[in-house]
Design brief:
This protein has 174 residues and is α+β, with helices and mostly antiparallel strands. It folds into 2 domains: 50 residues, no CATH class; 112 residues. The chain is built from 2 helices and 10 strands; from the N terminus they run H-E-E-E-E-E-E-E-E-E-E-H. A 10-stranded antiparallel beta sheet has the order 3-6-7-8-9-10-1-2-4-5, with no helix packed on it. Strand 1 and strand 2 form a beta hairpin. Helix 1 packs antiparallel against helix 2.
Length: 174
């Protein structure tokens, strides 16, 4: 019984510790890594796409409704490009090109002079550069995955409970 209670407590703690997300289940989060062609600063970014296309070659034109989050950080400068996307090109569900530009606090242009490349200009302090973009998909567990984890905890707790009951029976018989 003690093992079952322990498993129930651990399961409750895990449930409370799970991140609660308002993102739809069909959202895919892409991590962007910006590698400067010259000296740093380099950068990182996050691109979230709701229900990305999965055909052999799919082009999403003006995808502002399908991109709730798109931000890029280079050095100390952060660009929010959510409203500045003009085109995202997918191939087999993978991002192969992003066209977006902004003039907020400088200039950042993606994919303008070749696939998965960028230009940036930061006016204060004066800094500019160009580079390549590497896109990787972030693994975000779905609700069914969390359910399977909890089911596993419950199974481990039940086995511990059964084992403790068997151990008590053997001790009484001896």
């Amino acid at each position: 019984m003690r093992g079952f209670k322990l498993a129930a407590i651990v399961g409750a703690i895990v449930m409370l510790a799970l991140p609660i997300s308002s993102k739809p289940a069909d959202a895919v989060v892409y991590n962007l890594t910006l590698t400067s062609a010259g000296p740093p600063p380099n950068g990182t970014g996050i691109l979230e796409v709701i229900d990305p296309p999965g055909g052999p070659l799919d082009v999403v034109v003006t995808p502002t409704a399908q991109v709730p989050v798109f931000s890029i950080t280079i050095g100390s400068q952060v660009w929010d490009l959510t409203d500045d996307i003009t085109l995202i090109t997918f191939s087999f569900g993978n991002v192969i090109n992003i066209n977006a530009t902004t003039d907020d606090d400088g200039l950042l242009v993606l994919g303008s002079f070749g696939p998965l490349t960028y230009l940036y200009d930061i006016p204060q302090p004066a800094s500019f550069g160009a580079g390549l973009i590497t896109v990787t998909t972030r693994a975000v567990p779905e609700a069914s995955t969390w359910f399977m984890i909890l089911l596993g905890f419950a199974g481990v707790g039940f086995m511990a409970y059964r084992r403790s009951r068997t151990d008590q029976g053997v001790a009484l018989a001896a």
